[in-house]
Amino acid sequence: MTDILMPALSPTMEEGTLSKWHVKEGDTVSAGDVIAEIETDKATMEVEAVDEGVIEAILVKDGTEGVKVNTPIARLKDEGGASAPAKPPAEAPKASESKSAAAEPAAKAPPTEAPKPAPQAAAKADGARVFASPLARRLAEQKGIDLSAVRGSGPHGRIVQADVDAAKPGQASAKSGATDFAKAPPAQVKSLESLGIAPGSYDLIPLDGMRRTIAKRLTESFRDIPHFPLSIDLEIDRLLDARARINAALEKQGVKVSVNDLLIKASAAALKAVPEANASFSPEGIAMHHHADIAVAVAIEGGLITPIIREAENRTLADISKAMKDLAERARSRKLKPEEFQGGTFSLSNLGMFGIKNFSSIINEPQGCILSVGAGEKRPVVHGDQLAIATVMSVTLTCDHRVVDGATGARWVQAFKGFVEDPITLLA
Amino acid sequence: MALDFDLIVIGSGPGGYTAAIRAAQLGMKTAIVERELLGGICLNWGCIPTKALLKSGEIFETMNHAADYGLIAEKPTYDFAKVIDRSRKVAKQLNGGVGFLMKKNKIEVIEGVARMEKGDPAPKVVVDLRAGGSRTLQCKYVILATGARAKEIPAIGLVGDGDRIWTYRDAMTPKAHPASLLVIGSGAIGLEFASFYRALGSNVTVIEALDRILPVEDEEISAAAQKALEKRGIKFRISAKVTKLAKSKDGVTVTLDASGKSETLEAERAIVAVGIDANIEKLGLDTLGVKIDRGHVVTDPHCATNVKGLYAIGDVAGPPWLAHKASHEGVHCVEHIAGKAGPPIKAPIPGCTYTTPQVASIGLTETQAKKDGRKVKVGRFPFRANGKAIASNETEGFVKTIFDEQTGALLGAHMIGGEVTEMIQGFALAMTLEATEAEIMATVFPHPTMSEAMHEASLDAYGIVLNT
Predict the structure, then answer these.
(1) Residue B434: inside a domain
(2) DSSP conformation class of B380
(3) Is B343 on the interface with A (CB under 8 A)?
(4) Burial category of A407 from C-beta neighbours within 10 Å (exposed 0-12, middle 13-18, buried 19 and up)
(5) Which residue among B346, B407, B433 places its CB closest to the CB of A138?
(6) Which domain holds residue B390?
């Protein structure tokens, strides 16, 4: 017999929802068969069987939320004696090649090949430094425990030996994970009842992985990052004109570039012109990113996700447009791979299609800036001393003041305005 | 019913008075009850005055060896009454200091003997005042910090008589120093008095029932300590059980059972230093139903007893019977009451013995570590290979370190030598911060200091010692 364990689909995954079983007890499976679907923070993924055998028992039912990584979810009776449990989908980072041998209890399983925390500078998913004692670091390394998933009980939340001893390899400590969000100290969530909303007067939609992640990450970002917005109006008549000409040219290829695609390109060009804005804060220093990896917010059912156009500064408009279309589609069906929505260097959020005039977004940690794009609309403008009509779009750059100061942010906005108002310069 | 105080601390030793100060800092209306002298045994009859005596003894010993340093001190001698007097003055100064601290922190000092009765939300405290009359006080929390006293075993005559059979207290204020002295018990207290009286010329014999002196220390330290003290003229009878202690015509006679053979030793005076008994009597603990185990109040990791509102810290709550353990518990207990405590105390507690040479240690001994089933790496470094020690003529002793082979965790450190009691906190800090050998090796130790031996002993555990 072999336990099939809850796989970690990304290095930072602590738990997930077992959304659907594709097999039932008694089914014979062979390597590569999709046996279940797992919903994580932001994506739904398929779990494949690694070996053949008969599903002897399903231990975690469909729709179970908050299943911790490495929890046995099913038991496989192997045909030939030797066996191995399910492995995560091939495209997922190999966070957990669960190799626990049949007879061994989970706690004694050989360390999963979780990403080895660098002894010196383990970092949380959000880039924050992990504080742990030297001994705790060494023990975590020896036991294959990801310190970023361990809750510290020492002074100032420092991870000490006892915390690592209590954590199981490849697994978050019992105290972290689900309760993490509720326990983030200043973000105490009050009960609705204590706020005067009577029980029974509403329907409760359970928090899914995405909602939890949005709540946690944006709360932390808004609380911990010194945000400031810089707004500017852009005249986009030339951009619209350029778009029409580009689309006419690309028509044969079946590509239709959107205004947003142009803004992605212009953002990348502006980040290249003002590289200080393409940066992330870390306790060790300011990370100056080599490429403009632009994360674009896409609203999907039940939340939002930010697929990334990598190296946007080096890509053609047609390429950006095609990639964006594909990413957005797969985002809506929740089929994005983790690396497709994790790790951008700059974000863009566009609510123009809803007629929103101006807004300022919350920073997507660890990025230094996020651009909020409003609707393009005809407005009266003054050219020289003449009143005129132009298509104007208001945008707001929200900056992390730890990385981007006012003048730096303003220079970026200036550069962006230059590219947008005179799109031919994007070719320069 | 109106509460008289938020917190009443019974006993003003290092645990009690420290707890009271911390409580006052946290805004609690606090009172402290003391039946005798502020500062308790530590300040008045223990740690501090003995250090004053030992300093006199140590300097006298150095004077006797002045020639080693190229100095001339002709026929050094001493005024015993003044040595004792200095010790008392030191105690008095610190006792006054605690009084000042109480006043400064607006802590009410209630002089008298306390006992407890059932009460709510905490036991009531009834104090028979020294000035006459009594006060019954109700507060939210009571911390019991009544400490301990010398253990006495009347059945075999191990009872202080204030004349020829001394407990630590009598040994601190004698009229004259005895020509010969028997010290029963070779723990820190026994050996410190042995060291002091030997330095002043008494003929001292230490009797230990177990097979080595300083039985809580690492075995190598016990052996080295015995050798060093023997060199100074102290005699030891180990594995010798006292079966009877009695006054004789001119002094005292002790009867020993040494591996089945009975023998007797004579001396002018004897010191009973066979351990301590916690002060749990006449406090009303029975009535309250306070849980007691082996003579000590049972507490949880936050020093709470099984009785609502009642806490216990320090000696009364169990070993190790050390002032710094008491004060550390006191602070933690109060912070816990105030809802501000960190996790329970897990830091290892160092132990110090102020003989010449001194002994200091922390964590596990080599035997304990091995008994735990750990594979260990052990390092040693002798002070005779340390420049500062040679310059200071303090080449006796060594540093021993014990690391976990697998994790590199420092499991224990043991030192014997000059001023090692001032150095042990380096290892205490390392262990509290959960340092491994790597951090200790990476730490820069100042040259020339005796502390370099700590570094070298750690390097030695990994086979890379530099100066031997």
Answers:
(1) yes
(2) E
(3) yes
(4) exposed
(5) B407
(6) 357-461
ipTM score assigned to the predicted complex: 0.75
In order of A102, A117, A310, B41, B158, the CA distances from A274 in angstroms are 56, 33, 18, 70, 86
User: Which residue, B251, B282, B276, B244, is CA-closest to B266?
Assistant: B251
The residue with tokens 């069987």 is A49
Distance between CA atoms of residues B401 and B411, nearest Å? 8
CB contact B346 to A (< 8 Å): yes
Q: How far is A3 from chain B (nearest CA, A)?
A: 30
Flag whether B349 is in a domain.
Answer: no
CATH code of residue B427: 3.30.390.30
A133–B406: do the CB atoms touch at under 8 Å? Answer: no
Question: Which range is least confidently modeled, A101-110, A275-284, A369-378, B145-154?
Answer: A101-110
Please report how many Cα atoms fall inside a 13 Å half-sphere around the Cα of residue A206, on the Cβ side: 7
Give the integer Cα–Cα distance in Å for A262 and B343: 55
Judge whether B351 lies within some domain. Answer: no
* Residue A203: pLDDT band with limits 50, 70, 90: confident
Enter the tokens of residue B396.
């006796």
Mean pLDDT of A350-358: 93
CA dist A218 and A227 (Å) reads 12
| Total domains in the fold of chain B | 3
Is B386 found in the same domain as B411?
yes
Q: How far is CA A297 from CA A160, A178, A391, B15, B356, in A?
A: 38, 25, 24, 59, 73
Q: Which residues is B310 bridged to in the sheet?
A: B142
Cβ–Cβ of B436/A135 closer than 8 Å?
Answer: yes
CA-based end-to-end distance of chain B: 71
For position A92, what pLDDT does the model report? Answer: 38
How far is residue A75's CA from residue A283's CA, in Å, rounded to a whole number? 44
Measured between CA atoms, the residue of chain A closest to residue B409 is A135
pLDDT of residue A172: 43
Domain positions in chain A are: 2-94, 227-427
**Options 3.40.50.720, 2.60.120.330, 1.20.59.10, 2.40.50.100; which CATH number does A2-94 get?**
2.40.50.100
3-state DSSP assignment of residue A42: coil
The tens digit of pLDDT for each residue in A12-36 reads: 677 888 888 888 888 888 777 788 8
Domain match, B159 and B141 both:
no
Q: What is the pTM of this model?
A: 0.61
Nearest C-alpha neighbor of B398 from the set B463, B459, B356, B457: B457
Quick check: A264 contacting B, CB < 8 Å?
Answer: no
